[in-house]
Amino acid sequence: MKYKSISFIQNYLTQIITEEYNSIIDNISKDYNINSSYLKNKYINKKNISYNISNNINLSIRCSGIIKSGCQCARTRKSNSLFCKIHQKTLKFGKIIL
Ligand SMILES: [Zn+2]
To answer: How many whole angstroms from 82 Cα to the centroid of ligand 1?
Structure first.
């Protein structure tokens, strides 16, 4: 279950992307003899990256059902559906408009 949770996927993608951009920046830093932390500070916005990842996850794999509190359901979608196992059967509080 842990491996299918939204936050696991979000952290996993953030980690992969972070490693990838660090390696790219380090290579550019070596090739052009520029300080790598200067490049990272100037060109990489970590808040934007995690915002984009969570936004994409919410639109593509997170259940579109709304829970009692009015928030979007935090479960993953079942294949070929917009909803998780529970919200496939009933949408008591409605769904997110896409
Ligand atoms: Zn759901």
So the answer is: 9
